[in-house]
């Protein structure tokens, strides 16, 4: 095996030394850990920005006939909020976790195709900047939703460069995600350490395999849809026929539904890891979990038409059947999580709190997803605030809670210090209150008939009280995110000043190989003087501790 030189001796292509801690050392790095941190950090910054957009929209909808924002500004905000959360926040953060953690969990010294992975990150950054640059366009940013159906998004109905910048930005970001997903998949398949068979991979790595397969299978459809939209903006006759208008929707949703699980599987797996560690138990039903992830990924490619029931251009029976069939692998995953908790010695640290809240909150999103996958219900609630509530229970009440469980859990691995527990608990409770106070009323709003994507509503509609409650909930969410940012900055500041108590290499008594190395890990992940423990299952560190405990008892008995 070729050993890379130390960071201090690395050189860039021009032959001059690149200091490892310099900005150039970061932006040109081939260390998967730095690329993963750059991706996750960029996603978190964009998450805060998209949260500001959401607060502005909630301010507009607090009371009927509000004029806080113009209709055009509101349309731009909801488009960029939705696009940003899906294309620029939840998807990249999920893949960034894989870039950072997958090589460590399989005992590899690095990621496959590191320069290509770095290219994927910079394409993502360029895409985010390009999309946001639409606000500087003379006609403003893109305003047709994160799906941008034609003919609404053609040059006649959406003139100006804002839409063109949106198309270019999303195309760049999706290409970057596709590249990074391929690198993670190739790493897991080809760079596993000795003894790490496929059925000894951690749950998180299996989730990344399923995720990357969906990225490779579905993201080209998004690139095709965006290309079609760009061609249609150059030649308006393309969308003169309803064939291509409906055809665009089919192509787009072939991407649009699998991406939901791209934004779910890595966070589900993070929750599974946290539940197992803080229950002191091996994850229950490992093989069933692996099979359910693969079946879930396959079925996700067959349900796109349930987004199109109201068009009359989708086979309702088929898409309803495949949508309801998702209950089977989802049920296996939920039983695995509940089985892990039963009989465990639970430690209610902050990562565990977020993981526990994930389970019932995402269940609401999943069950309402089955509801809208049923045509007779979907006809009533389609394009209403019921759909907004469902989507946010999936992506915020679910995936975002998994995201924060992952951050609190792996923060000591990345930095060597744990986040403050008191602020973490305050962050958790503010988010629980804010999430449910914001999004539960939206189910009622949608059922009562409030359409989505409207900038205001009439007093006689009777939506004012529920919208006021949702806005109060959004204030709790803002407070919670403020506490989180303060916690991260305060902890990093104390660490830089040497005031933060070191967390140790494994403060949680975790199960997987990333905790067998130092925290934070060295350049090549595992020090030469610290051999990896033998891999005998998907939880090698748990096996090692139990073996040492058994040997200790035998020696004391002898």
Describe the structure.
- The protein is mainly alpha-helical and 558 residues long.
- The protein has helices at residues 23-27, 32-61, 71-105, 114-132, 161-190, 203-234, 242-256, 258-262, 265-279, 286-300, 316-325, 327-341, 350-372, 375-381, 385-415, 421-448, 464-496, 540-557.
- Helix 3 packs antiparallel against helix 6 (203-234).
- The longest helix is centred in the N-terminal third of the chain and has 35 residues, at 71-105.
- The chain is globular and about 80 Å long.
- It starts with 22 loop residues before the first helix and ends with a helix.
List the helices and strands in order: HHHHHHHHHHHHHHHHHH
Unreliable stretches covering 5 or more consecutive residues: 1-15
Helix tally equals 18
Average pLDDT taken over every residue: 93
- Which sheet architecture does the biggest sheet show? none
Number of strands: 0
Rounded Rg: 24 Å
Globally, the shape reads globular
Please give the share of residues in helix.
Answer: 55-70%
Measured between the Cα atoms of the first and last residue, the distance is 43 Å
Which structural class matches the secondary elements? mainly alpha
Task: Give a quick set of tags describing it.
single chain, mainly alpha
Please sum up the structure shown.
By secondary structure, this protein is an all-alpha fold. Helices cover 66% and strands 0% of the residues. It is built from 18 helices and no strands.
Ordered list of secondary-structure elements with their pairings:
Elements (H helix, E strand, L loop, with lengths): L22 H5 L4 H30 L9 H35 L8 H19 L28 H30 L12 H32 L7 H15 L1 H5 L2 H15 L6 H15 L15 H10 L1 H15 L8 H23 L2 H7 L3 H31 L5 H28 L15 H33 L43 H18 L1
Helix pairs in contact: 2-3, 2-4, 2-17, 3-4, 3-5, 3-6, 4-5, 5-6, 6-7, 6-9, 6-10, 9-12, 9-13, 9-15, 10-12, 13-15, 13-16, 15-16, 16-17
């Amino acid at each position: 095996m070729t050993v890379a030189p130390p960071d201090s001796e690395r050189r860039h292509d021009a032959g001059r030394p690149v200091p490892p801690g310099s900005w150039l050392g970061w932006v040109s790095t081939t260390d998967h850990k730095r690329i993963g941190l750059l991706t996750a950090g960029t996603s978190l910054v964009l998450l805060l920005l998209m949260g500001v957009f959401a607060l502005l929209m909630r301010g507009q909808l607090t009371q009927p006939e509000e004029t806080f924002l113009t209709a055009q500004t509101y349309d731009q905000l909801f488009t960029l909020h939705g696009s940003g959360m899906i294309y620029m926040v939840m998807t990249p953060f999920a893949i960034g976790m894989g870039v950072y953690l997958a090589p460590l969990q399989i005992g590899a010294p690095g990621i496959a195709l590191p320069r290509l992975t770095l290219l994927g990150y910079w394409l993502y950054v360029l895409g985010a900047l390009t999309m946001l640059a639409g606000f500087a366009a003379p006609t403003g940013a893109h305003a047709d939703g994160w799906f941008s159906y034609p003919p609404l998004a053609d040059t006649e109905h959406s003139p100006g460069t804002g839409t063109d910048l949106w198309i270019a930005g999303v195309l760049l970001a999706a290409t970057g995600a596709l590249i990074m997903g391929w690198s993670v998949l190739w790493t897991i398949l080809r760079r596993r350490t000795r003894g790490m068979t496929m059925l000894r991979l951690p749950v998180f790595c299996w989730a990344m395999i399923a995720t990357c397969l969906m990225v490779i299978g579905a993201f080209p459809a998004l690139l095709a849809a965006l290309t079609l939209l760009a061609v249609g903006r150059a030649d308006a006759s393309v969308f003169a026929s309803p064939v291509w208008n409906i055809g665009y929707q089919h192509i787009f949703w072939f991407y649009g539904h699998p991406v939901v699980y791209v934004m779910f599987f890595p966070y589900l797996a993070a929750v599974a890891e946290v539940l197992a560690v803080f229950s002191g138990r091996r994850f229950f039903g490992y093989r069933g979990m692996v099979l359910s992830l693969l079946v879930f990924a396959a079925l996700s490619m067959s349900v796109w038409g349930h987004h199109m029931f109201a068009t009359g251009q989708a086979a309702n029976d088929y898409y309803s059947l495949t949508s309801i069939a998702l209950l089977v692998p989802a049920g296996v995953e939920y039983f695995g999580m509940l089985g892990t908790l039963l009989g465990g010695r639970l430690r209610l640290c902050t990562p565990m709190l977020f993981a526990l809240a994930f389970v019932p909150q995402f269940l609401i999103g999943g069950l309402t997803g089955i509801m809208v996958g049923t045509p007779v219900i979907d006809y009533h609630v389609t394009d209403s605030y019921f759909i907004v509530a469902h989507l946010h229970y999936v992506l915020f009440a679910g995936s975002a809670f998994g995201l924060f469980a992952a951050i609190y859990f792996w923060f000591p691995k990345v930095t060597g210090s744990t986040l403050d527990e008191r602020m973490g608990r305050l962050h958790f409770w503010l988010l629980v209150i804010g999430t449910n106070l914001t999004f539960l009323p939206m189910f009622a709003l949608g059922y009562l008939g409030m359409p989505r994507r409207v900038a205001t509503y009439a007093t006689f509609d009777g939506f004012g009280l529920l919208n006021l409650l949702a806005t109060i909930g959004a204030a709790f969410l803002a407070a919670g995110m403020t506490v989180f940012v303060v916690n991260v900055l305060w902890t990093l500041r104390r660490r830089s000043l040497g005031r933060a108590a070191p967390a140790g290499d494994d403060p949680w008594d975790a199960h997987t190989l990333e905790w067998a190395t130092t925290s934070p890990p060295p350049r090549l992940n595992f020090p030469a003087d610290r051999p990896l423990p033998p891999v005998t299952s998907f939880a090698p560190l748990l096996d090692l501790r139990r073996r040492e405990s058994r040997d200790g008892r035998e020696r004391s008995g002898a």
